[in-house]
Each structure stands twice: as C-alpha cells, then as structure tokens.
Amino acid sequence: MYVDVSQYDVGEKARFQLPVMKENDTHCIDFNYLLTSPDGSSPGTLNVLVKVNKGPLANPIWNVTSYTGKDSHFQAELAVSTFWPNEYQVIFEAEVSDSKAGFIAIDDIQVLSYPCDKSPHFLRLGDVEVNAGQNATFQCIATGRDTSNNKLWLQRRNGEDIPVALTKNINHRRFAASFHLNEVTNQDQDLYRCVTQSERGSGVSNFAGLIVREPPHPIAPPQLLGVGPTYLLIQLNANSIFGDGPIILKEVEYRMTSGSWTETHAVNSPNYKLWHLDPDTEYEIRVLLTRPGEGGTGKPGPPLITRTKCAEPMRTPKRLKIAETRSRLIAVDWESLGYNITRCHTFNVTICYHYMTANNHSKADSPRHLVGSLPPYTNVSLKMILTNPEGRKESDETIIQTDEDVPGAVPSQSLRATPFEDRILLYWKEPAEPNGIIIQYEISYIGVRSFDPSVPLQRPGLTVSLPSNATYHLFSQLHPGVTYQLSIRASTSKGFGPATMLNVTTNISAPTIDEYDGSEAFLNETATTITVLLKPAQAKGAPISAYQIVVEEVNPQRTRRQASSDCYEVPVSYHIASSGGSPYYYAAQLSPSNLPEPLPFTVGDNKTYQASVYCLYFSKTENSPEVIPDPAKQTDRVVKIAGISAGVLVFILKLAKKRKDAIGTTRQEMTHMVNAMDRSYADQSTLHGEDPMAVTFMDSHNYNNRYENHSGSAAENSRLLDVPRYHCEGTESPYQTGQLHPAIRVADLLQHINLMKTSDSYGFKEEVILQPIEDDPSSDYINANYIDVSGNASNATIGPVHETVYDFWRMVWQEQSACIVMVTNLVEVGRVKCYKYWPDDAEVYGDFKVTFVEVEPLAEYVVRTFTLERRGFNEVREVKQFHFTGWPDHGVPYHATGLLSFIRRVKISNPPSAGPIVVHCSAGAGRTGCFIVIDIMLDMAEREGVVDIYNCVKALRSRRINMVQTEEQYIFIHDAILEACLCGETAIPVCEFKAAFYELIRIDSQTNSSHIKDEFQTLNSVTPQPQPEDCSIALLPRNQDKNRFMDGLPPDRCLPFLITIDGESSNYINAALMDSYRQPAAFIVTQHPLPNTVKDFWRLVYDYGCTSLVMLNEIDLAQVNGCPQYWPEEGMLRYGPVQVECMSCSMDCDVISRLFRVCNLTRPQEGYLMVRQFQYLGWAGHREVPASKRSFLKLILQVDQWQREGEEGEGRTIVHCLNGGGRSGVFCASSIVCEMAKRQSVVDVFHAVKTLRNSKPNMVDTPEQYRFCYDLALEFIESS
C-alpha cells in the first residue's frame, strides 16, 4: 500500500485488508513500513487493526507516527493467534495528518506459520463470569520476552482500553498480565482482548467475554401454609425468580415488623417452619437465593407479612375483688393484664355472673369497674374469664349480694276489683320484682268522675297503709255510680316503688222514695180528681231525669198483679189501656226541677205538664168489698177512682247518661223511646245472664261478616240483643273494670265491631289511643298497638277499611310517623284485603289533606311519597309509604332476599326524629309480625351478635295477639335472619365505590384470596339448588328434547308458559322469568333456540310482549344440537303461527341491531309487535367475560333506551346465551346494578346476582363473571 498524503485532506484514511484467517493456529505477520516527507515531518499515522467475526473495529493494536527517513523501511511483526471457529482479519490503515507532501507505505507483507520472534503470542483468553457488583479479573498469558518497553492493555470491543494492573514472569519465555474491572454491572458485560505493543510490532489475543450474572431473587413472596401461636409454616414459592441461576442456596430471612433484628435460616426443602416465635406478633418473612460465585446472594424477595395466632392465656386473672355493691350494680376490680399474661394483643375480659334470691347483705367501700343491670337484693355469682381467640382462663367464683331497691309495680293483671254500691273490694298480688323485703303497701283512692254531678268528689284522695302480708282491702263509705281511681304501691326499706292504677266504678241502684203512711198519701179527692203528696226521690248514683205518675186500676173481681210496686214495662195511655185490657196507664210526667220538695199534685185536672196532656178517666163503679185493707181510707170513692194509694202511685225515675262507658244512646244499646225520651240503660245481665245463646267478643269469630255492612240492623239480628227489656233495678255495675280483661259492653262492642277486621287481631295491650274528636268521646279508638321491643318503635295495625281511613291518618299525624309499611295487596285471590287509603292526586279525609308527590315502582315493592296537612295547623309533613307487593296472604315469600332489601330501605329512609313506623297487612297480625320481628332481629344481630327470635315473637304477642300467625311464617323469619347474617350488608354507596372496589380486589397475603372471591363463595353457599321436583315440567319426557343441557333447568315457578297454540306442541319452553330493578318479571332468560324450538321462541316473544332480544353467544352450527339463526336477514319468514319481518339492520361497534315486526297469524286483530334484536359480537366463545367493559356497557344502555322509548317502558327483554346461564346473568345483573346506582346511589352486586339466582342458580356462574359485574359498575360510575 502506497499513500501520497498530498492527495488527501487531513483526517482521511486509506485501508488495506488482508485475507480472512480461519486456521486454528498461531500466525506471525511480518511487514515493512515507511513514513517519509520532504521536510522530515510525520505525514500521518499507520494503524494496524484486527477485526474478529466481521464485528466492529476496535482501537488499533499497533500504530506508528514517527518519521522513518526518506528511503529507509522499517520491519515490524504482528503476533495473531486464531482460534476456530472465529475469523480474524488484519487491516492496515493510513491516516493523513498533514496535507504536505509525504508518503505512507507498507510492503513485503508475509503471513508466517510460526511464532514471531520479537512480538509475544498470547495464549487463549478465557471468559470471565462474575456476579454483579463484584470485581472481575482478566489474566493474559503470553509467550515471549516481556520487556519494559512493551505496552500492555486490555481492549474492550467498543474501544475502551483498560491499563494493566500487574505483570509477572512465569519463566524466561512466558509472562502473565492481570487486568481488573471493579464492581461490574450489566453495563460492563462485553468482549475483551489483551494487546501488547512495541516499536517492533504487536501481539493480540482472542476476544473473551465478561459475563455478568444477576444474583437471583424470588418474584413472589412466600406463601403461608399454616400458622400457630409460636410457629409459621411457609412455602418458599421460589420457583419463579428474577436474575440468573443456578440456585445453590435458599435462605429464609424473618423479623418482627416492629423490631430491627433479623434472623436468617438456610432451607433445603420447599416448605419451612419457623419456630420459637412470639404469639400474636406480626412478622415480615422474605426468601434469599444464592447462585455460585462471590456476591451470588440476591436481594431479599417480596415480603410475606403475617401474624402468629394468639396463645392460650398463661393463667387465670388474679385479685378479683368486689369494690362496691349497690342495688343494681356491682363494682369489680382486678389486676392489670399485660401481654405476658394474655399472650395476645386482642383479648376480652368477660365478667360472668348468675344470681339467685338473696338471704343476706354485703357492703364494700370504693367503686371500680361496674357490672350493671343486675337485679336488686340478689346473690350474684361472679367470675372473670380472660379469653383470646385461642383459649380462655377462668377465675374462681365470688359470691356477692346486691343491695335492696324500691320494689317493682304490683302486677296490673293481678288486680281484681269487685264493686258494690258503696264499697269496692280490691285484691292484688306481690310485685313480680320485690327487689327486697316488702314491708308495707300503700293504697290510695280518689273519685275521678260521677254519673250524678251532685255527688262531691273527694280531692285530695284518701290513703291507706297496709301490712306486707295483706292481699286485699275493702273500700267503704263510697258513693254509687262514681268512678274511683285506685292506686297501690309496695315499699321496701329503700322506699316505695311505682304505683299501679285501676279505675273502678261503683254500682248504680234504683232511686228510693221515703215511705208513705196512710195519713199523708192522699190530701184531697173529688169526683173527678184526687190530690196526692209527691215527695222528691233520693238518687243512687245517677241524677233523676223525670217523675212519672202511673195509675193502676184495682178491680175488686181479680187479684191485683204481683209486684205492682216494681216497674211498669211499657208506657201505656188510657185509651190503649182501656182497649188492651192493661191494668195501668201513665197519667203524668214531671221534671226534677218541678219537685224540689214535697208537693201536692192533682191527678185528673186536665192540665199540661212538659208539653203533654194527661187526663184521669173514670169507669163504671160499683160498691164492692174493699180489696186493699186500709182502715183510714176505706171509702167507696176510693174504690171508684181506682183505689190509688202509695202502693199504686209509682214514680218512674229516668237516669241521665253522663259518659259513654255507662249508658248508650244508640239502637244497639236496646234503648227505647218513652214519651219522646230515652229510657234506662240495659242491665249487665244482657251479657252475663243465663241466656244460653249469649256470647262474648273473644268467643265469636264471625262478627266481621255479621256486622261489617249491617250495623244499622244489629239489634234485630243479634242474639246478644235478645234480652228482657226495661229492667229498672240493677245490682251490678254495667261495666266491670276491676277484672283482668274488662267486660265489653254491648254498646262498645257494636260500636267498634266495624273497626275490627277479624276477632283474632284484637289488640288488648299497649293500644294506640287517639285524641278524641270534640263532641264524640267514643272517637279515641283505633285497632292499633304500640310495639316497642329492643328500641324498635312501630305501630301494628290492621289494613284500613273505608270507615277507618280518617282514623288511620289521624294516627299517622298524632304519632308523627314518617313511614308507613304495607305488607299486603289491596286485593288477593279475589278478596279485598285493604282499602286504598291514599289518593292518586290529592284527597281530603276529614280535616286532613293528603297530596300525592311521587311514586318509585320497584320489582318487589313500591315507594310512594305524600304530603300530609291538617286544618288549623301551619305544618306540612312528608310521609312515605313502602308497599311490599310480593307477600301472599297467609303465606311467605319464596326467598327473603327482596324483603331484607325492603327492610333496609325502610330503615335508612325513616328520619331519626320521626315517630314510630306504622306497619300493617290485612289483619295486622301475621305478616306485620314477621316484618317487625325481622327488623328487630337484624338490629339485635348487628348490635349484640346474637338473635332471640322465640322471645321476640313472645314479646310481640304480649302486645298484640297472633303476631307471627303461622308456623310457616315463623320458619321464614329464621331463614331470613340466616340469610342476612350469612350475606351481611353488601351495598356500597356510589361515592365510596371506587375505594371499596380496590379493597375488594386486593389479594390478602395471608389467605392468598380477596374479598370479592370470598363474596362469590358466600354467594354460592346461599344459592338454593333446585331439586328434581322443582323442575318437574322441564323433566317431563315430552319436554326433554327442548332442553339443550339437562343441568340448570328452569324451576316450575319461574316458567313463562306459552299461550299461543301450535298444533300438538306443548306450552313449555326452557326459559325463566326474572325481575329487573324496577319491574317484576322484566327479563326472560333462555337458551339459544334449538332447531326444534325456534317456533316456540317466537311464540314466547309474542305472548309475553318482548320488545328487546339480547343475543350474547355466537352462531355455531357445530354446537351440540345446533345453534341456528332464528331470524330472517331480510324479507319475511313464518315460524309456526308467528310471522317475523325484518325491517332494518345496522351495526355500531360490537352490536348488530335488527328491527323486526312480529305478528300472530292466529290473532291478527291484535296488530303487530315491534321487536329489536341486539346481537353482541364482543364476547368470544372461549372467553369468560367480554373483551371490553365499555362496549358491554354501551349494549346495556342501548337496550335500556329502546325499552324506555317503546311500549311505554312495559315491554319485556329476552336475554339468551348458549345455556341461558352465566352470560345472560352477567347482562341482567349489570343492568340491575347500573339502574340501582342511578336511582338509589348505591351499588349492590351481591344482591343483584342473589336475586337472579333465586330464580335460576346458574346465573353469573364463575368468579370472573362476578368480578366483571363490579368492573362494569365502576365503568358506569366513572362514565356518568
């Protein structure tokens, strides 16, 4: 190569390449070179490069720049060792440094097959492997003489040169050179070679690799296999690693998360057990992996953070002592409990106690921890229990007695009073809670009202103290016809307890008149008149309303009637008496004001008294022997004027009605008009007499039928009223109030009979008393009871009838209720169960105005909102009615899911300041009781962690009869509470959903599970599995060929039976009706039609008014039984009796939308049905869930928009996939969840899927599909 540098610019290069050398040998390349110029300066640089395997050129291995003379050539040699299969190529390069005249030349190049003489040859350089972060050393061994003039370096392929660190002679012909690379990384990994250079030549080795290995570490944390108080069993989980192997050592590194020390154990098996750990302590565990070589241990893997279990407490608590005792609490003290005793950071200290009747006393001084709600004067056995999740330790029992307290009230049911005219005999029993030793009773009484306003009422009342062994007392010197309030209370050494009140009315008797003697009865007589002395009568409990004068004719030919001085049953005029043969007639009537004192009165003067004219008539008389022996007045005149005497002249006293519970004025009370005035009250013997047909209210079970529409003729139709009329005397009170169950007067019974739907729902305790309406004291009654058990306040009542709607709204207003719960339908099985007591717009009920505001219809219940106003009150209240529509009369819902959701909705809607919730069904008993019991038990389960259904029902029945009416309802309560406890509260507010969602899907490192996975497992455990008898119709032989698969068959109760007849085809189709969020049976879920069921499919579409078809599977003719196209792509096709015409077809992203016009040829008069099919293409057959959440959500919204636009939103939606299960369930559940989030601002995927599974268990049947429902809910919320 000869280069004239004057012909080139500075920096230009000329290269001469030797042929490629492949022989596995040592080569020596000998050559001559010349660098000359006219002025003796260097014309440039001569470089020698060696390219390996056609790779990049590294830095030169030899170069020269000095002037060699004008004609003098110098000799140099290159020592190149080649190793097969590598290729080597030597390149000579002349680089111009000055454009002046000069030459660079090489000549006489020889490739010799023996070693060079002046340049050393390198032996094969081997690869160096080192772990990242460690130092690497290349050692180059060369054959030849090492001189101090030789330059040695390590050359990197990319051109970097590394100086020699150390050289040493191995012998006189061989030396070694060492090169160091410090703390290498992956960036240092490359090819390196050794180079030596002198003026006479150069030597170069082969390229060797620097291999940097990454120390391994696990990808995943160790997995927890077992846990105990002092050990953790883990699986190293080290098969998947980052970095390089091989792994020669596995170690477990662990520490307390709260500590700083770390321990490491070598492990030679897949699992390892860490021993001697502290109980209930959190540890961080990592795995270390080591590969060969220094620094081969990788960084610790991801941590497993877990906690050991609690250990059983070391010992029982000590130093349990009683610090103080009171009547209802005990103060308890004990030692401080530390971790060294509890062996657990989470522990409970439970004070267990039981008690019995006390016989002695105990006292202490200072208060400590209080054990409250104890019964007074009771021996209490106390012990302390220290518990943690792994065990318990109990202390010894300590017995202490609580102090006395004031006693409880005397049981009201034990009070029994027997009233007389001027006395009352009262019986009682000791208080059920004496709370000590009863030392005395205090009885007081006071008159509260009287039939006779002239009777003075004693105020203040009188008080009597009685010894502790007294059980009765006789109150004397009382007034007849007076209602006395009796009060009794007991006393211990601590004082008197609460009083028990009882109102008792003394009996009313007939008024009395002072006896007449023979000299004063008759004052004067004429031929046509007789003057008698009238004396005022003494009232016996009621005011006298009238004096009536009766004339009885004494016929000497017959014996005078017996008991003539008693009552005269019927008021008879003289004409009637003459024509009818009556021995007496009414002559006159005087008001009490006309007879304030004894007054002469002339009978027969033809004067008018109180607007009535009375005459004294004479009959033909004859002299005859005197019948009535009266020596002072035995004259013929006396005989001729009918022999009137004190025994014959009778004053009939009319009693005035003063209160509703004493006298009635209606026809039902059997009152009869006498001379245009009311007669006396009916004797109580009408209820308690010897009439064998007489019945009581509690004995009768058909008053509803007898009196509901015929109250006006009750007196004529009822045997209760078939009694002797017009008794003037009575020896018993007409209204016995001293008994446990007060007798109900006939008047009260008939007055309230229309208010009671059935006799078995009559509430007899805790009754709601309405504020009476002015001038109508009987308007305080409504058939409703307070139910306040465990803090849950509600009013249980019957479904209103037409006559009680006003009273119902009065109760709602009076009790300040904001929520009404209705668990009946207006009509069930053709029978009216409840009157529609609310308006569709606005309605006035008495002095109330009820205005309809809005309605929210849902699948299983309806929420209506009203405003309530009352005349005279400047207030408008909002009242919500929650109407549960899915509960049959005398039955239970098939599942409790809907009712539980209904109860939760009621609870969150009832304002805290509102009054009790009004709950009613038809009779206010069975279903009302179920609702209240479930509500109470849900609160109890949440608050106390236990339920007590039996005692809750028992408590409700003590307040209202027949609450929870049937065994089926009682079992249903248990099922509902079980479902609520198993499932828990799964609703999430929309505002919190995003944060809750990420918590749901987070993997727990201890369980390797997530909350959403656990929720799906819970869903599987509570999903009812249908039995063969539940699917009996689908299993009939004639229907089996209509089922694509024999698992997941629809239950009989959910089947949509086909209506349109198609030859001999049955009315069965493999489909199930399901509820949407707002509409019952809005979805029909079915399988993709089989070739033999396409006709049935279109019958289903038409018969059930389906306006939307959602297709979620692909058409696959290779599928078992075939998966045919069941619609026409264009034009018109007939499928049995149904004709289908394709109107249009369009595609939007993953949805093909087709519009069909469907008509039934057997019923052409019904017109046609417009049906839109949505064929979803974004769900491949091999995928568990759709590929895109956004496109699936778009499908749901498109279907919803079409449903709202057509058929006034009432059309149903058919959803089908291959088997009518998982995919269809995802669509229905997602639709429900989106609607719920939009209208109620909550997301409850669990409830949506559970509701669907109640109808068909295979809805949403994989965890991935269940997770997708959550994903879609999040997508809906974020896109809204």
Automatic annotation (TrEMBL):
<feature type="domain" description="Fibronectin type-III">
    <location>
        <begin position="218"/>
        <end position="313"/>
    </location>
</feature>
<feature type="domain" description="Tyrosine-protein phosphatase">
    <location>
        <begin position="1012"/>
        <end position="1276"/>
    </location>
</feature>
<feature type="domain" description="Tyrosine specific protein phosphatases">
    <location>
        <begin position="900"/>
        <end position="971"/>
    </location>
</feature>
<keyword id="KW-0904">Protein phosphatase</keyword>
<keyword id="KW-1015">Disulfide bond</keyword>
<feature type="domain" description="MAM">
    <location>
        <begin position="1"/>
        <end position="118"/>
    </location>
</feature>
<dbReference type="InterPro" id="IPR000242">
    <property type="entry name" value="PTP_cat"/>
</dbReference>
<keyword id="KW-0472">Membrane</keyword>
<feature type="domain" description="Tyrosine-protein phosphatase">
    <location>
        <begin position="745"/>
        <end position="980"/>
    </location>
</feature>
<dbReference type="Pfam" id="PF00047">
    <property type="entry name" value="ig"/>
</dbReference>
<protein>
    <recommendedName>
        <fullName>protein-tyrosine-phosphatase</fullName>
        <ecNumber>3.1.3.48</ecNumber>
    </recommendedName>
</protein>
<dbReference type="Pfam" id="PF00041">
    <property type="entry name" value="fn3"/>
</dbReference>
<dbReference type="InterPro" id="IPR057598">
    <property type="entry name" value="Fn3_PTPRU"/>
</dbReference>
<dbReference type="InterPro" id="IPR029021">
    <property type="entry name" value="Prot-tyrosine_phosphatase-like"/>
</dbReference>
<keyword id="KW-1133">Transmembrane helix</keyword>
<dbReference type="InterPro" id="IPR003961">
    <property type="entry name" value="FN3_dom"/>
</dbReference>
<dbReference type="Pfam" id="PF23144">
    <property type="entry name" value="Fn3_PTPRU"/>
</dbReference>
<dbReference type="InterPro" id="IPR013783">
    <property type="entry name" value="Ig-like_fold"/>
</dbReference>
<dbReference type="InterPro" id="IPR003599">
    <property type="entry name" value="Ig_sub"/>
</dbReference>
<keyword id="KW-0393">Immunoglobulin domain</keyword>
<dbReference type="Pfam" id="PF00629">
    <property type="entry name" value="MAM"/>
</dbReference>
<dbReference type="InterPro" id="IPR050348">
    <property type="entry name" value="Protein-Tyr_Phosphatase"/>
</dbReference>
<feature type="domain" description="Fibronectin type-III">
    <location>
        <begin position="406"/>
        <end position="512"/>
    </location>
</feature>
<keyword id="KW-0378">Hydrolase</keyword>
<dbReference type="InterPro" id="IPR000998">
    <property type="entry name" value="MAM_dom"/>
</dbReference>
<dbReference type="InterPro" id="IPR036179">
    <property type="entry name" value="Ig-like_dom_sf"/>
</dbReference>
<feature type="domain" description="Ig-like">
    <location>
        <begin position="120"/>
        <end position="205"/>
    </location>
</feature>
<keyword id="KW-0732">Signal</keyword>
<dbReference type="Pfam" id="PF00102">
    <property type="entry name" value="Y_phosphatase"/>
</dbReference>
<dbReference type="InterPro" id="IPR000387">
    <property type="entry name" value="Tyr_Pase_dom"/>
</dbReference>
<dbReference type="InterPro" id="IPR036116">
    <property type="entry name" value="FN3_sf"/>
</dbReference>
<dbReference type="InterPro" id="IPR016130">
    <property type="entry name" value="Tyr_Pase_AS"/>
</dbReference>
<dbReference type="InterPro" id="IPR003595">
    <property type="entry name" value="Tyr_Pase_cat"/>
</dbReference>
<comment type="similarity">
    <text>Belongs to the protein-tyrosine phosphatase family. Receptor class 2B subfamily.</text>
</comment>
<keyword id="KW-0677">Repeat</keyword>
<dbReference type="InterPro" id="IPR007110">
    <property type="entry name" value="Ig-like_dom"/>
</dbReference>
<feature type="domain" description="Tyrosine specific protein phosphatases">
    <location>
        <begin position="1190"/>
        <end position="1267"/>
    </location>
</feature>
<dbReference type="GO" id="GO:0004725">
    <property type="term" value="F:protein tyrosine phosphatase activity"/>
</dbReference>
<keyword id="KW-0675">Receptor</keyword>
<dbReference type="GO" id="GO:0016020">
    <property type="term" value="C:membrane"/>
</dbReference>
<keyword id="KW-0812">Transmembrane</keyword>
<dbReference type="InterPro" id="IPR013151">
    <property type="entry name" value="Immunoglobulin_dom"/>
</dbReference>
